[in-house]
Amino acid sequence: MSEMFVKIHVSRGNAKLKKTEKLNNATVIGFDLPAGRTCPYAGECKKICYAQKGNYRFPSKRDACTDNWIASQQADFIQRMVAIVTGIQSNNDKKLFVRIHASGDFYSIEYARKWAEIARQCPSVTFYAYTKSVAIVLGADMPDNVKIAFSYGGLQDYLIPANAHAVAKIFDTEEDALNAGYDITVNNNDLMVVKGGKLGLIKH
């Protein structure tokens, strides 16, 4: 039996991503999954998950995330995503970035390896993500054009490498983040993940 066809939804994202585009003279698209159901190693973040609030509660957004989840498990996901990304890139005169999961996470090693292959087939595009699925990502052999920020507060914090490209942590206030040595500009410039370092996210 053939697989059910579902649409893959990519977006220009929320207000922060639009601000990021302007600051970097770039194009940023996002690919989202259902929050919670695709976050196997979520920890304390479950209590404050912004991806279960606001626009993410609208039926149209929930349905789009669910479609993406189904599509991501199908055999042609790599082919379809490569076609979407290269199609956007070919009609775009700015550097293209793909944010994987403003909502959701890498839910399996097979799924993470699909993104690794998509990135290999789109070498001039930069992909980036925050994740608490540390073991999954470390086992996926991500290419250099995938930039990962390992987020503290999950069930696998102990696996985060000391030499990680980027780490992220949620703070109550900007002052708390700065006092802990974290950069808070990520709140206004999402591409700080690409630069790397210690990224402070402020509760909102």
Measured distance between first and last alpha carbons: 45 Å
Largest sheet: 6 strands, parallel
Would you tell me which CATH topology of the domain at 15-153 applies? Rossmann fold
Count of β-strands: 6
Unreliable spans: none
- Order of strands, widest sheet: 1-2-3-4-5-6
Number of helices: 7
The global form is: globular
Amount of helix:
25-40%
CATH architectural designation of the domain at 15-153: 3-Layer(aba) Sandwich
Mean pLDDT: 89
Beta-strand proportion: 15-25%
Secondary structure class reads alpha/beta
Q: What Rg, in angstroms, do the CA atoms define?
A: 16 Å
Task: Spell the H/E element sequence.
Answer: HEHHEHEHEEHHE
* Name of the CATH first level of the domain at 15-153: Alpha Beta
Short characterization:
Helix content is 32%, strand content 18%. It is α/β, with parallel strands linked by helices. The protein has a domain at 15-153: 3-Layer(aba) Sandwich (Rossmann fold), CATH 3.40.50.
Notable features of this structure?
single chain; 204 residues; alpha/beta; Rossmann fold; six-stranded parallel β-sheet; 6 strands; 32% helix; globular
Could you explain how this protein is built, in words?
With 204 residues, the protein is of the alpha/beta class. The protein has a domain of 139 residues: Rossmann fold. Helices cover 32% and strands 18% of the residues. The protein is built from seven helices and six strands; from the N terminus they run αβααβαβαββααβ. It has a six-stranded parallel sheet with strand order 1-2-3-4-5-6, with helices on both faces. It is globular. The termini are far apart. The mean pLDDT is 89.
